[in-house]
Write a structure and sequence with these properties.
about 15% helix; 7 helices; single chain; alpha+beta; 2 domains; Fumarylacetoacetate hydrolase, domain 2
Length: about 300
C-alpha cells in the first residue's frame, strides 16, 4: 500500500494511491467500516493499525477507485498536489556519513557509531514542491536517502527485531547548505532550512521486504550524479533503529533518513550546487521518484 498526503480545500488529507488515482483515506476507512475516530484520519493513524485492517483499507480503496462513476473522494493523481506523506512527525532523525564511499569522498574517518543530527517539520515538503534557495547560502547540495518511518513505539530493541517496528519507506532528499553546515562543528544550521527535507512520493508499506538491497540514485537536470545501493550502508536500517532506540523512545510517524552515498555536489571538481531552475530527482527502487524543482527565494 502507498500512502500519500494530498491537498484539498487548502488542507492536507490522507490518501491511498491506486495506479493513477488517489483515494481519500477517510472515505475508504468509512466504506470499510474501519473509521472509529471522529473526523478525518491521518497516515500516522493508519500506520498503527493491524495488518488486517491495513489490507482491508487497501482493498476498499481499490474498489472505490474502480467504481463507475468514481466517487467524489477519488481523484486523478495528476490533478492533486501531494505533500510529505507524514507531515507531522515528532522527530526527523538523520544519519551522516553512513556510506563508506561518501565518508571517504568527504574526507572523514569511517564512523564506528551512527552520526546523528536532526531536521524539523519546517523542512518537510512533498513531491513536486519547490526546494527554495535561501539568500544566505550559495552552496545548496542534494543528498539521496532512504527514509524509514516508525510504525509503533520502540525503546531498547535489538537489531534482530528492529524491522518489526518499521511502518514503511520513502525517498528523502537531505538538502544541505554546505557553507552554513561547515562553519561550525554542529550541522544543524545547514540542514533544516525551509523545504530542505523533500520526501515521498509515497510512504510504501508492506512492499519492501529487504531495505538493504535497493538501488538509489540522484539526477540533476537528467544527469545522474549519485548511483548506489542501500547494501553499501555502514549501519543497516535495523542497526540504526536499534542504536537510536537505546538513546530515545521512537514513536509512530518518526522519520529516520539513513544517509547518502557518494556523488554529492560539494565534493565534485568543480563543485555542483543547486541553482534556480534546476530539477532534482531522487529515485529508490521499489519506492519511486521524488522530483522537485529548485527556485530562488523571492
Amino acid at each position: 500500500m502507498r500512502l500519500v498526503t494530498y491537498e484539498q480545500d487548502g488542507k492536507w488529507q490522507a490518501g491511498i494511491v491506486t495506479e493513477d488515482k488517489v483515494v481519500d483515506s477517510s472515505a475508504a476507512a468509512k466504506a470499510a467500516g474501519l473509521n472509529a475516530e471522529a473526523g478525518r484520519i491521518s497516515n500516522r493513524s493508519i500506520i498503527q493499525w493491524t495488518l488486517d485492517q491495513q489490507l482491508q483499507l487497501e482493498e476498499t480503496a481499490r474498489r472505490l477507485a474502480g467504481s463507475h462513476p468514481a466517487p467524489s473522494e477519488v481523484f486523478l493523481m495528476k490533478d492533486v498536489r501531494l505533500g510529505p506523506p507524514i507531515p507531522d512527525p515528532d522527530k526527523i532523525i538523520c544519519l551522516g556519513l553512513n556510506y563508506r564511499s561518501h565518508a571517504e569522498e568527504a574526507g572523514f574517518a569511517i564512523p564506528t557509531v551512527p552520526i546523528l543530527f536532526a531536521k524539523y517539520r519546517n523542512a518537510l515538503s512533498g513531491p513536486a514542491s519547490p526546494i527554495i534557495l535561501p539568500g544566505l547560502s550559495e552552496e545548496i547540495d542534494y543528498e539521496a536517502e532512504l527514509a524509514v518511518v516508525i510504525g509503533k513505539p520502540c525503546k531498547d530493541i535489538a537489531a534482530a527485531q528492529a524491522l518489526d517496528y518499521v511502518a514503511g519507506y520513502m525517498a528523502f532528499n537531505d538538502v544541505s547548505a554546505r557553507d552554513l553546515q561547515m562553519r561550525t562543528g554542529q550541522w544543524l544550521s545547514g540542514k533544516t532550512l525551509d523545504t530542505f527535507a523533500p520526501c515521498g512520493p509515497a510512504l510504501v508499506i508492506h512492499e519492501i521486504t529487504d531495505p538493504q538491497n535497493l538501488n538509489i540514485s540522484t539526477r540533476l537536470n537528467d544527469q545522474t550524479l549519485q548511483q548506489s545501493n542501500t547494501c553499501n550502508m555502514i549501519f543497516s536500517v535495523a542497526e540504526t533503529i536499534s542504536y537510536i532506540s537505546q538513546l530515545m523512545t521512537l514513536e509512530p510517524g518518526d522519520i529516520i533518513a539513513t544517509g547518502t552515498p557518494e556523488g554529492v555536489g560539494f565534493k565534485r571538481n568543480p563543485p555542483i550546487f543547486l541553482q534556480d531552475g534546476d530539477v532534482v530527482e531522487v529515485e529508490i527502487e521499489g519506492i519511486g521518484t521524488l522530483k522537485n524543482p529548485v527556485v530562488h527565494n523571492g
